[in-house]
Write a structure and sequence with these properties.
Blueprint: H1 3-24, H2 29-36, H3 42-63, H4 76-93, H5 100-106, H6 110-136, H7 146-150, H8 154-175, H9 178-182
Helix pairs in contact: 1-3, 2-4, 3-8, 4-6, 5-6
Length: 194
């Protein structure tokens, strides 16, 4: 795929995801903290839906020869430590890298400080990376995929993953309906007026 169609495709996908992102309200700090405290599962439902959709789209694009998959190497220490650090930061800030610009856009003033903190953290890591390289980026299996482990083609694995995620989403919705997590007045109906 050439650059211009790739940019247009990325913009279109970003608009669709951004629309769903805003409608689900998953950028709100209370929603994010609620998910991290396992009190509100709207964010999990939105992101699992995005993973299922993304898997199918990637399978189609890969199957048509429009993209080439490029998995990153697995490093156990970096993945575990980085995941714990990111999760703690998301919980404390009520924001993640994907939501911070939406929070700034709707006027959460403290989100600007979270963005500045994230940028400062990235700069600090870039200076610390040479010293952390032997500790974080040494142990791991390298580039490994489910295709390598199972011998099954990516499109089949992607469709299988999407089916499993849809089943999980249906079960999750039955257990925790979105209206219960969002609140009774999510659609703007505040009940009878006195």
């Amino acid at each position: 795929m050439s650059v211009f169609p790739a940019i247009l495709t990325g913009l279109a996908m970003g608009i669709v995801f951004g629309f769903a992102f805003e409608k689900a309200r998953v950028f709100e700090p209370g929603m994010i903290v609620g998910q991290m405290q396992l009190r509100n599962f709207t964010m999990l439902k939105v992101f699992l839906t995005a993973v299922a959709t993304g898997a199918v789209v990637l399978a189609l694009l890969h199957g048509m020869g429009l993209i080439k998959l490029g998995p990153k190497a697995t490093f156990y220490a970096a993945d575990i430590f980085g995941g714990l650090l990111l999760g703690a930061g998301i919980t404390l800030a009520g924001a993640c890298p994907g939501t911070i610009l939406a929070q700034i856009g709707v006027g959460y003033r403290d989100a600007l400080f979270t963005l500045l903190g994230g940028i400062a953290g990235a700069i600090a890591f870039s200076y610390a990376q040479p010293a952390l390289q032997p500790l974080l980026f040494s142990a791991g299996p390298g580039k490994i995929t489910f295709m390598d482990l199972t011998g099954i083609a990516y499109p089949v694995l992607a469709i299988g993953l999407a089916v499993v995620l849809v089943i999980a989403l249906v079960l999750l919705e039955r257990w925790r309906p979105w209206r219960a997590d969002m609140g009774a007045d999510v659609d703007g109906d505040f009940g009878p007026r006195a």
